[in-house]
């Protein structure tokens, strides 16, 4: 019997994880990536227990567990460092990590043979009939397979059309950076400091490095790119000492700007033989650090289903298994913004007070549910 085939549109975290997982399920896969080479964008990211468990399922967690800094927990604090919520400890028997984006990408890429990877392969169109699904590249070449996986990120026009969830600006953005030579004394607890309209998060990235992200309200996309490092330092005067230290150690050239866009929680995940995963399906606000983690879960669960189902049953089974969790995390990620950025009738300051009164056991159990360690 011939091996089933899959074309994966996009070679980000979702697409590369899907390639590893589908190959393990017996598929012959081709990743079609528009860029001329695989290059990780951004600095670092949190990979929580749910994604570590999924990566372990496909034997792809080893390098992250060996080389990345461990996240021991996460806490939300006021600007001066008074506790609002947490620390919510991670499960030490599983582990959560803060790999650089390049470490995660190379850990995934090294599990995929070169013949399964194509660069300079921008997918223009997709189509399907009862027998097959196909993609047409920018140069007019058409490729066919049993399945097409849309893993081409938040701006995927194909996923937006099928899922009817156009991305929109979330009203905030900022800068992030990876800083070297900060010493090895970090306790492993990631911290976010919150005030009205702005916040900063700091995580240990291992080897004396720190990863930080600053976010504030912005009226229009990319407005915050007008801010300089000195502006941020100025805004953070009087905040907790850890913040001044990490900002002082930052070189302007390390700053990476971003503007947050997200999609509404999807009601479906594809059509027929075409399945959307990762940000293409459910780009979310970064407030729970779960966008990539959910993309990894998607890829591993999809491959598991694809190994055991008739082709026509793959999408309905995937939707049945995934939609509820995806919708829950997308909504939670969006609602968490209200403690800093005014989007609800209740003022952020009042929400922070309410949040600080939630018993730790309850908030820890909510985080455990998000990270699937209940
Ligand atoms: C500031 C910020 C912080 C974040 N922090 C975290 C975190 O700590 N933890 C976490 O889990 N998540 C985090 N996320 C979310 C995470 O970055 C994303 O969810 C994740 O990277 C999505 O991966 P993806 O593969 O679905 O999409 P992408 O990374 O966007 O990859 C899509 C790929 O498809 C390619 N492509 C696009 N169109 C085409 C086409 N037509 N043809 C061929 N190729 C194409 C692109 O070049 C790209 O390589 C954060 C996001 C932001 C903005």
Portion in helices:
25-40%
Mind telling me which CATH architecture this is? 3-Layer(bba) Sandwich
Q: What is the top-level CATH class?
A: Alpha Beta
Order of helices and strands: EHEHHEEEEHEEEEEHEEEEHHEEEHHHHH
Query: What does the main sheet amount to?
Result: 7 strands, mixed
* C-alpha termini separation: 41 Å
Structural class: alpha/beta
CATH level-4 homologous superfamily: FAD/NAD(P)-binding domain
Low-confidence sequence ranges? none
The spatial strand order of the largest sheet comes to: 5-4-13-14-15-12-16
Spatial extent as radius of gyration: 21 Å
Describe this protein's structure.
The longest helix has 25 residues, at 311-335. A seven-stranded mixed sheet has the order 5-4-13-14-15-12-16. A six-stranded mixed sheet has the order 7-2-1-11-18-17, sandwiched between helices. The protein has a three-stranded antiparallel sheet with strand order 8-9-10, with no helix packed on it. Helix 9 (291-308) runs antiparallel to helix 10 (311-335). 34% of the residues lie in helices and 26% in strands. The two termini are 41 Å apart. The protein has a single domain (5-168, 262-370), classed as 3-Layer(bba) Sandwich (FAD/NAD(P)-binding domain), CATH 3.50.50. With 374 residues, the protein is an alpha/beta fold. It binds flavin-adenine dinucleotide. Flavin-adenine dinucleotide (FAD) binds at residues 9-15, 32-35, 45-46, 121-123, 151-153, 176, 213, 258, 278-280, 286, 289-293, 295.
